[in-house]
């Protein structure tokens, strides 16, 4: 066993062996008691990390409102016309406006909605919408739309004994909420003819006022409430009649239709806030209003002379194929579609960005050379907006193998596969363009700063961990986003203490193999190669999070047990190779002396995963009573 104590910045201070651990933690205990100077309540958990002493009727009620397709530039358009007084009040007086909030990649509803409710990236939800799978040599379309390997915030809240409610938030349906259960209710309604934002706000207001929804009766208001509304997305796409509105022709008309709908939604938001105030609960409530993606215009803009009416996909293919042998392209978008014989580059698109994959090519040097050749050939083309290489994709949270190169058109150009012309403007968001990536985001209410514009970059996956802090619970198990402490009152970033347990400290099953590896922390790692292979620590230190350093050629899943009770499966994405180790965080509250066990999921029997070490991280808040320091196992 190896002990490492870190400060809140993660800088290593001490690295000692087991014989001094107990002494160090006794000193820590004396320090904590001596510095305790407040009466702040600390949540209590059982050995499974379940909240057992929670101020469930007095804690924050967190409301997560998602307006699908709410591009940041819509805020400026609506404010210029004075059409969103409620949002302007939140932005300027009552809360926080995030001027640099961004979505992730691919910026498509399914992958982004599940990433948001889990507080992580598509790499850990394993939802990338559509891509070319090199090993299978075919296009993969993710199914279902809301596919999600990660735990959601609703599931995390239920696991920690909080009631939850979702109104049309499909990413939470059967993922923490279900139809008919008032403690974790999922509600959908065909009201108002369109089930639009007005109908969904009206239903939320009805619940606030009466604690009823149809035949469902709530004994108390849920602590976590999620509302989903897609008016802006439907109207912004302008693909036909949407929520009772006819299709428009020009970009000016499309943007005006958005502003008109924003005025209605803003008014209903104001009515919802007023209902909460009249119910006497507003002072307990914390609100997040944001979106999954923006919207980039494409196609017809003002006249029949617009060059953007026709797709530039053929032009793009011609420019790439002009590079010579080895660059023959084929555009594909159908699930399980395979490239034709002789094709060198598979091109996958949903209409805007194009993902290039070099068929059968896995040599990084060859891939890099081709990428540079294509980027150089396209750099001066008027319809090219952005080009993304693999390293940047990985840094943005995409899995290995999603694409070798992403090419994004400059709005209003597009790469639709259809050869027909767009004779009316459209909107779409599978793009690297600012209009699609830059999103609207607001927070206000209890424990949130007022009249503050947050100017640093934040991402959609940062909001779920922040909401978890407001709820007083641990973040979803797989969350990788950061809590936005800088916009919170009364919730400070903790100091952290760490204990590292090497793989040799674990009790393992016979279907494992410990082997020497030069990149492993203690010189060895343990391979869980066999069916139901297990890896267990008999007695662990107190922790709020654990981090496993692992390596995996393919995706894998481990079943998590605490004290012999099953918690849930934990997904481990391919790390890029059997010798490429990386850390995977699992947000789990543990008590000193608990048993933690990982068992290989039989579904992934053929996937080999190796564990190097596990770090147990304990959050420590100076000045709070009842904080027991970590003790050695």
Report what the structure shows:
The protein is an alpha+beta fold and 633 residues long. Strands 1, 2, 27, 29, 30, 32, 35 and 37 form an eight-stranded antiparallel β-sheet that branches. β3 and β4 (51-53) form a beta hairpin.
Mean pLDDT over the full residue set = 89
Report the top-level CATH class of one domain. Answer: Mainly Beta
Low-confidence stretches: 1-56, 624-633
Name the CATH superfamily classification of one domain.
Galactose-binding domain-like
CATH topology of one domain: Jelly Rolls
Beta-strand percentage range? 25-35%
Number of strands: 37
Shape: globular
Radius of gyration: 26 Å
Quote the distance from N terminus to C terminus: 9 Å
* Annotation field: number of helices: 14
Largest sheet, strands/sense/barrel: 8 strands, antiparallel
* CATH architecture descriptor of one domain: Sandwich
Structural class: alpha+beta
Helix content: 10-25%
The gist of it:
This protein is α+β, with helices and mostly antiparallel strands.
Keywords:
633 residues; alpha+beta; Jelly Rolls; STM4215-like; 8-stranded antiparallel sheet; 8-stranded mixed sheet; 37 strands; 28% strand; disordered N terminus
Task: Please describe the topology of this protein.
Blueprint lengths: L1 E5 L5 E5 L4 H15 L8 E2 L5 E3 L7 E7 L4 H9 L4 H10 E4 L2 E2 L6 H10 L3 H4 L4 E4 L4 E4 L11 H7 L4 E4 L16 E4 L9 H14 L1 E2 L2 E2 L6 E6 L1 H7 L13 H28 L6 E6 L5 E3 L14 H9 L7 E4 L12 E5 L4 E5 L5 H15 L5 E5 L1 H6 L9 E5 L16 E3 L5 H4 E2 L2 E4 L6 E3 L3 E2 L3 H9 L23 E8 L4 E2 L4 E4 L7 E5 L5 E7 L4 E8 L3 E7 L2 E8 L4 E10 L7 E7 L8 E12 L13
Parallel strand pairs: 5-14, 5-15, 6-25, 7-26, 10-11, 10-14, 17-18
Antiparallel strand pairs: 1-2, 1-27, 3-4, 6-24, 7-23, 8-9, 12-13, 15-24, 16-22, 18-19, 19-21, 20-21, 27-37, 28-31, 29-30, 30-37, 31-36, 32-35, 32-37, 33-34, 33-36
Helix pairs in contact: 7-9, 8-9
